[in-house]
Each structure stands twice: as C-alpha cells, then as structure tokens.
Amino acid sequence: MTETLLVLVLAIGLGWPLGHYLARVMRGDRSWMDRVAGPAERLIYKALGTDPQRGMSWRGYATAFAISNLVVGLVVWVQFMTQTWLPLNPDGIPNMRWDTALHTMVSFLTNTNQQHYSGQSQLSYLSQMVGIVGLQVATPVMGLAIVVATLRGLFGGRAEMAQTAGKTVIAGHAVQEGSERDVGNYWVDVTRATLRFMLPLCLLWSVLLTWQGVPSTLQAGPSITPVDASVEMKEQKIPLGPVSPMVAIKQLGSNGGGWYGPNSTAALENPTPLSNLIEVLGILLIPMAITFMVGPFTRRKRLTAMVFGTMLLMSLASTGLSMWSEAYSSTAADPALMEGKEVRLGVESSTLWSAMTTQVNNGSVNAMHDSLAPLTGGMAMVNMLINAIWGGVGCGLQQFLVYLMLAVFLAGLMTGRTPELFGRKIEAPEVKLLALLILLQPLVVLGFSAVTLAFPSITGNSNPGFHGISQVFYEYTSAFANNGSGFEGLGDATWWWNLSCSVVLALGRYPALIIPLAVAGLMARKRVAPESSGTLHVETPTFALTLIAVIVILTVLQFMPALVMGPIAEHLTLYGAASVGP
Q1: Is 580 exposed, middle or buried (0-12, 13-18, 19+ CB in 10 A)?
Q2: What are phi and psi of 110, to 5 degrees?
Q3: 26, 11, 231: which is closest to 147 by C-alpha?
Q4: In this predicted structure, what is the pLDDT of residue 214?
Q5: How crowded is residue 2: how many other Cβ atoms within 10 Å of its Cβ?
Q6: Measured between alpha carbons, how far is residue 42 from residues 28, 189, 283, 339 in Å?
Q7: How far apart are CA 487 and CA 449, in angstroms?
Q8: By three-state DSSP, how is residue 216 classified?
Q9: Rounded to whole angstroms, what are the CA distances from 318 to 390, 512, 548?
Q10: TM spans, by residue (predicted)?
C-alpha cells in the first residue's frame, strides 16, 4: 500500500495549487504568464479571426467545438493514409488502411486512444508527433474548455459570475433575464489552457521521463543481433523515436495511447520504478487538479470539498477492491492469470495502475488487463461504466455534473422540494436531455456487444467462455467511456471492430460533452431563487452519499447482468476449480 498512499499524497499535494492556478487561467485573470503567453495568444486569435472579448452562447460554443473537431479530424485522417509519402519516416512505415486510419483518428480525436494498431510499426515519426501527440494535447484541452463553459452556465454565465465576484461587467455582457447567456469564448479557453497550463506541464514531465531513460530522438532505431543465434530472426531492429513527449501527454492528458504496442509494459516506455511512479502520478494529477479548480472558479469552496470527497471515496473503494482481488482473492494465484502479467514492477504497482487508468479516462497500462484476476477486470469495467470517479480531463467532471443534476432532481422528488441546483430549477426539458444521455450508454454498449457476440465470425475473441464475453463487453465499454484500454486477447484489428468502435467512440464523447452544456445553457436563462429553509444543499456529506447511491444505481446495477455473465461467472468458475483441487 506504500506506493498507493504515496501517489495519492503527491497527487493531492500537487493538484491543490495546480487547481487554483488553473482556475485563474480559465477565469482570464492577469498573471506573470501574460508576458510569456500573451503575444502567442494574440497571434492565434488573429489567425482564427476571433475577438477574445466576445463571448458565445452555449450553441455557439458547441458549434465552435464541433467545427474544430471536424477540421482537425479530417486533416489527421488524411495524414495517416499518406504517411509513407511524407517526411520523418526513416523506417519506411507504409500508409494505414483507411478503416484503421479512421478508427485511429476518431479514437484520438475523442481523447480515447483505443489502439487497433502497433505504434512502433504502423506509424511514422511525423504521424506520431503531429497526428497522435497533436490530438493528445488538443482533445483534453477541448474537454476542459467544455466543462468550464458548463460551469459558467450553471452559475448564470460569465456576466453573472463576474457580478457575484464583484468585478466590472464587460459592456454588452450584462445579465438579461430569459436571454441566452455568455458561457465564454471557446477559442480563448482552448488557447489559454493549452499555452498556460498543458504545454508547460508536458514539458516538465517529458524532461523527467527523458532523465529516466525514455527515448527522445528523431534518429532511426538501431539494428542488433539477437543473443540467441539459433533463432530464425538473425537481426532485430529496436524502434526508437521521440517517445518521452508522447508518454508525457498520454499520461497527463488522460489519453493513454502508447508509442509501443505493449504501452507502458515496454521497458523503453517505462524503464524504471521512478518512471513508473511519475507516469502513474501523471494519470491522476490533472483530473484531481480540476476538482480543486471547481471551488475557486465558481467561488464556492464547499463545492470542491463535495466533489473531491465523493470522487476520493469512490476511488478508495475501487482501488481497495482491485488490490484485494489481484493479491488476496482465491483466484489471484491461478497460473492461468500469469500470461501477460507484469512481474518487473510487482503486483501492487500493476494493480494500482489498472485502477487509476480506468478511474481516469486514461487507458494506458503497465500490465495486460486481459490477464487481470476476473474481479479486478470487472472492477476496471465498473470504473469505466461510472466514468466519473476522477474521469478524464474535463469530461470526467462533466459526467459528474450529469449525476449531480440527476441526484438533485431525484432528491427533490423524494423530499417534496422543487429540484434546484445553485438556485435554478431543474425542470422537464433538462431532465429529458439528461435521461437521454443516461440511456444512451446501455443502448450502445449492450447493443453492440450483443451483435458482436451473436456472430462468431466477427467477434475475434480468444476465449469462447465467460472471459470471451468480458473481452467484447470491455472493448465497447472502454470505447464508450473514452478510456482506450482493452483485453488484448481480442482480435480487434478488423473492419468490423474498426468501424463499430468508431461509432461507439463518437457516441461516447460528443453527447456526453454537449448535452450537459446544453442543459447548463437552458438553466442559465432561469431566474435565481433565493435560498431558504427548503433549499436542497448539495455541499453536504448526506447529499454526497445520496449522489454515490444514484451513481451506483444508474450505472452498476443496470449492467449487472453483463457483469454476471462475464467477470463474476469467470471468477466463480476459477473458484470452483480451485476448491475441487487437482
């Protein structure tokens, strides 16, 4: 438990000041970074043709988000299909097949990084640096911008938040009851978060990883003679490249896509125990910092305590159950579970990583999840189904706000109070949108899983039994949760998996970001009701426990049949075999 406690202490200790700094960045406060980033920001605004002082309604914000994703996605898709003719390809990597290129583009565009390819052999240096790393920087910042705009909407827009803070309201931005509210400027939010927050942090993490031995070069990898001269392979090429910058952003940006096929199980990508600590800390750092951003950004310190406390309680429960299952359960020592298991860093390190990478929408691995004990793999699925224990950069808090609004609505019905969040009523139009979002997950994940399992010719699983069900269910759950990890016994590099997962990736990303923004935009137009003795206070331990109960009911229980047919049935099978003995 030493490493687990160390990671949590470091994440909290670093996340607290980082979250307060991020709140200042997203509020647009003046700081010493104005001299460093200000000129570059002004050039970007000029190139985009946007006025940084001009705000947007939620519709304008969502439109800008969609346009930026469409343009960037098309450019990267073309790059993957033409990489053999482009520079920075010293190893002569061929073009990607169009369906693999499409899945890869959609996967990284949705901040999922689900990989149906092996990076060191199917992507050129240019594709890795521009297409992959470029999207890994941009997409988490886009998610952060959306959740910041949603928070502004829930508190009445930028003008009302400025009035609450005692600041001067920009001319033309005054609050008008019933009108569309200014939730910020998308281009400004993305630019400021990238230049003032994400890139400096990635630079620091990249230097730390390079110091630990992660490759950082543009030269082609060397060719060596294998130690065993009797093998058929007489020469082996060691793939190198600018690996450390990609590993830095894959961990910090809740991305997870590895330079190498085995991800951070590969010694080149994760060479030492200290690099392992740096990488697992990177998974948790920014999502935790965002929880600490909520209070200073909204001027409600107790809101941070509620969000952080709820997430931390769920995280500790999930991590503890995973640790018990992997190290102490009756199936933990089964020899069949050792295939693909990480032995270089130990059980605790591997289990901690598997818990954190699925509690966050990260998806990187330092041990193959296909080889986890059945209940550990089941816990990883539960983490992704909840998708808000810490969640990804921005999108995790966005999903948490969905659960928060639904919990307020249900608590209001149970207590006979009008459902209100921050003084604004949650009414039928908002609840319908939120219900649509909650129903989308089982419809998509269970629907695609059922179709895939019904046709063995397209399934591609390596196990015909309960674990085979888990492999398929995990893949679609991971895609919808924008996580990206997988049970790697699955043969997923096919037309069916590429195209079906592309659909699931998009459905799991865009509605989950845009619908809460729309709900916040609708609520921002409403009159604020003054607090009274009948007001439901959300910043209390009682409500936090109610919120956790709502999350469990809306996610875990509705997927219980799938979990029973997969990891739970597999656990009982192994337990029965162990009880009978040889």
Answers
A1: exposed
A2: -95, 15
A3: 26
A4: 92
A5: 7
A6: 14, 13, 31, 53
A7: 14
A8: coil
A9: 12, 23, 13
A10: 6-23, 61-80, 129-151, 197-214, 277-298, 305-324, 388-413, 433-455, 495-522, 543-564
Instruction: Check the CA dihedral 309-111-157-162 and report its sign.
Output: positive
Given this model, what pLDDT does residue 368 score? 87
- Residue pointed to by tokens 């005692």: 166
Rama region for 270: left / alpha / beta (φ>0; ψ in -120 to 50; rest): beta
Q: Alpha helix (H) ranges present in 347-394?
A: 347-359, 374-386
Residue 408 tokens, joined: 């307020």
Please name the residue that has the structure tokens 């996610």: 555
Contacting residues for 28 by C-beta, under 8 A, at least 6 apart: 188, 192
Q: What is the C-alpha to C-alpha distance for residues 59 and 467, in angstroms, rounded to an integer?
A: 44
Encoded tokens for 521: 């935009």
Q: Are 50 and 102 in contact (CB under 8 A)?
A: no
| CA quadruple 521, 554, 419, 416: dihedral, nearest 10 | 170
Q: How many angstroms from the chain centroid is the CA of residue 237?
A: 33
Please give the pLDDT value at position 171. 45
Helices 186-193 and 33-48 sit at what angle, rounded to 10 degrees?
140
Output the CA–CA distances (angstroms, integers) from residue 107 to 140, 260, 313, 323, 499, in the order listed. 13, 16, 30, 29, 11
315: tokens are 């995280």
Tokens of 250: 């894959």
* Top-confidence residue, 422 or 142: 142
Beta bridge partner(s), residue 237: 223
Name every residue whose Cβ is closer than 8 Å to that of residue 192 and which is 6 or more positions away in sequence.
Answer: 25, 26, 28, 37, 41
pLDDT at res. 330: 74
3-state secondary structure of 240: coil
For residue 425, the cross-strand partners are 420
Distance CA 391, CA 143 (A): 11
- Inter-CA distances, 104 with 107, 116, 131, 140, 376, Å: 5, 7, 10, 16, 27
Residue 88 carries which DSSP code? Answer: S
| 3-state helix, strand and coil shares in percent for the chain, rounded to the nearest 5 | 65, 0, 35
Two tokens, residue 6: 């160390």
231 pLDDT more than 80: no
Residue 237 sits at φ, ψ, to 5 deg, of -95, 125
Largest CA distance in the chain: 82
Handedness of CA 154, 158, 163, 167 (dihedral sign): positive
The CA distance from 190 to 185, in Å, is 9
Q: Cα separation of 213 and 244, whole Å? A: 9
Instruction: Give me the residue label for tokens 């998610």.
Output: 143
Asked if residue 168 has pLDDT above 70, the reply is: no
Structure tokens at 272: 């030492």
